[in-house]
Write a structure and sequence with these properties.
Elements: H1 5-15, H2 26-32, H3 36-68, H4 74-96, H5 98-104, H6 115-127, H7 132-160, H8 172-187
Helix pairs in contact: 1-7, 3-4, 3-6, 3-7, 4-5, 4-6, 6-7, 7-8
């Protein structure tokens, strides 16, 4: 059964956007989306970790865990794989982009426990049971969906910060309102309400 790769991409980026329709990965989404450059770098880091870990977890799941009958170890194994890739990204960013590394603060190591990355790895082997290619495409598209969401959020927050805001809405309150409106907009892609 051939997978519809274009359908996987459209679904992962727009219809089932991991942040705005599944509400996963909100910690880094809210924490980093104050500046466009930081948001872009976080999105790229998430894409890298998501794609690499999805490829490796798919291979480990189907070539080690399933043949040995130990599929129940998938969450532990997947988190270890994700943590290894996050450590690699952290070392690279610290060495070559120290200002970004400082701006990320605690949010960079939190990619390890970012539920979006673990969710994609689990969706690829459990929920959708994608092939290797489908799994890789889903991870890449979901990563781009995360990048799209965080860039839109950062763009709006950057613009809003240029204007006078009531004290009670500054910071996180306005961010939650923006996220709610974006989530409603992305729900339109699923055909809900029509």
């Amino acid at each position: 059964m051939a997978e519809n790769l274009i359908g996987i991409v459209i679904s992962a980026v727009l219809i089932n956007n991991i942040v705005l329709t599944k509400f996963l990965g909100l910690c880094s989404f809210f924490g980093i989306s104050t500046k466009l450059r930081n948001s872009m770098m976080m999105g790229l880091a998430v894409i890298f970790v998501m794609v690499c870990s999805s490829i490796l977890t798919w291979i480990i799941y189907y070539s080690v865990l399933v043949p040995c009958g130990v599929q129940y170890l998938r969450i532990v194994v997947f988190i270890l794989v994700i943590a290894a890739f996050v450590q690699l990204v952290e070392m690279i960013i610290n060495k070559y982009l120290p200002d970004i590394y400082t701006a990320f603060g605690i949010y960079l190591p939190l990619i390890t426990v970012n539920c979006t990355i673990l969710a994609v790895a689990l969706i690829n082997v459990d929920v959708e049971a994608y092939s290797f290619i489908g799994s890789t495409v889903n991870a890449l598209a979901t990563g781009f969906g995360y990048l799209l969401a965080i860039l839109i959020m950062a763009g709006i927050r950057t613009r809003i910060d240029l204007y006078e805001q009531p004290e009670s809405l500054r910071g996180m309150p306005i961010a939650f309102i923006i996220a709610a409106i974006l989530a409603l907009a992305f729900q339109g892609f699923s055909g809900m309400g029509g």
